[in-house]
Amino acid sequence: CSEFANSRTADKWMKFQRDFENFKTACIPWEMKIKEIESHFGSSVASYFIFLRWMYGINMILFGLTFGLVMVPEALMGKPYGSMPRKTVPRAEQPTAMNFATLWDFSGFAQYSVLFYGYYNSQRTIGWLQFRLPLSYLLVGIGTIAYSFMVVIRTMAKNANDDGGGDDNSFNFSWKMYTSWDYLIGNPETADNKFASITTSFKESILEEQENRKEENIHLVRFLRVLANFLVMCTLAGSGYLIYFVVRRSQQFALEGLENYGWWERNEVNTVMSLLGMFCPTMFDVISGLENYHPRVALRWQLGRIFALFLGNLYTFLIALMDEINLKREEEKIVQQNMTMWFANMYNSSYSENSTSPFQVDPSIVPRGPCWETMVGQEFVRLTVSDIMTTYITILTGDFLQAVFVRFFNYCWCWDLEYGWPSYCEFDISGNVLGLIFNQGMIWMGSFYAPCLPAINVFRLHTSMYLQCWAVMCCNVPHARVFKASRSNNFYMAMLLFILFLAMLPVIYTIVSIPPSFDCGPFSGKQRMFEVIQETLNNDFPAWFAKVFGYASNPGLILPFILFPPCACVLTPDYNAGAKKALKLGMRAAALSAAARILSMESIGLH
């Protein structure tokens, strides 16, 4: 009896463990949807949705930091709307401040709210908690980039370790034939998905074997690949020239006044960039048919080409923004002089009319300086929203309408639409992956000027998961050559790390080099944004701590730790060894620069 009871207890314990594992799997967001897609479309398509889910988790953390430490404190403890000029819509803009077109352009009341940099107050502490908002704003902006670096590098190292074991080429078909089925499956739907997954896995392995045994005319292949790269370079050059032309036009429109032009002139740059991002990847996909690469290699070439396209578009956009910033700063000098004269006249007239009343001015009529930080934030928000709308419209009017046309007109057409032209669409892995990566790059660059951007991206990723899962299952067909994803996830991470590094540079440049606007934002009244750190050290910490921090803030100590680890992790096949080597190099460079600084200080009598 005791043995029977022990066996039943062991069975119950095993059943509990199995049920608990199933419960943990069910708690993973969108796990069953991704498994179903993987079973029908292969691991290469599933790798995109796994990447999207991972980015959704990252953006939830960024949204929590920005919302909890910047937006909520200002909304609850800061001065209310209408209490000061930077928090008040100018009187000339009030009649249209709530119009849909104005709000859609993120102007009007949206511009003078916690969504953008210019609304935040420059008081060192706010509220009864004495919350240090300017310091929190700066640290959150830097902390989001530092956290993103840490998570991306850690994920790359984990993926490298996970891919390092086992030999997939030994008796591959035998292992799949005799060990693929899971005999614990009891759900008919799960069994169908498992059957489709095993079938797709066999297709992937067969393709790998065919590619290994394929013989080609090497001279013809080389000629076609050179021709394909020439066509790609012509496309990239044409795209760059078009963006340059549009940016120059937009600068001319800005000088003449955008209020004199219509919707197209105000949104020409964003629209052209979105259209190029939609049509150029399709052109690259057509050109790649000449090269006859292995599908995995072709995917990486496609990703690299679209990466070059998006990178050129993004930095052309940044150059245009820097030109606008310079124009705003020149305008700011004139406004400062006019404001001084305006306040003097208002004070004299108020004093002469009633010498006993205090000097009070309606904030809505006070002249404003141009807040270039808010302008930059608005541009990034508009570009992000434009990208979201382009993606959704492409899915609905492209994949869905094409699938409906093929499905219902195939019965009365001259040829078979399903197997001929246009047929059903295949899921564009490269275009969607690069769209995610560059959209995330815009979030990293723009969230310092528009704290609402992480929230917009969370909404975008959440809805994209459902919409694209539906589109894949209902409107797309599996690729004609199904292939294993292999280490695609780490390839995506490497590109994400590179774009994170590029996104960090403009933010750091504005923090340490460009003077902030004088009458808006948490850093107004300072020569540089980073001075808020020194102000906190002088007021809230002992003198010796400020001196130690001054030594530690030497750029020679900081830059090696910023520059070496990302570069080493991208360029070294062994990511762990690369990170360790980069850390050693960074420590050596930091030690040498610190020693040089100490010796230079001692030479002039500073100890």
TrEMBL record:
It is a multi-pass membrane protein. One of its GO terms (cellular component) is plasma membrane. The chain crosses the membrane at residues 54-76, 97-120, 135-153, 223-247, 303-322, 491-512. One of its GO terms (biological process) is cellular response to mechanical stimulus. Residues 371-486 form the TMC domain. Its main location: membrane. It is found in: Membrane. It holds the Pfam family TMC. GO terms for molecular function: mechanosensitive monoatomic ion channel activity; voltage-gated calcium channel activity. Keywords: Membrane, Transmembrane, Transmembrane helix. The keyword Membrane applies. Signal peptide: none annotated. Belongs to the TMC family. This is Transmembrane channel-like protein. It comes from Leptobrachium leishanense (Leishan spiny toad). The lineage of its organism: Eukaryota, Metazoa, Chordata, Craniata, Vertebrata.
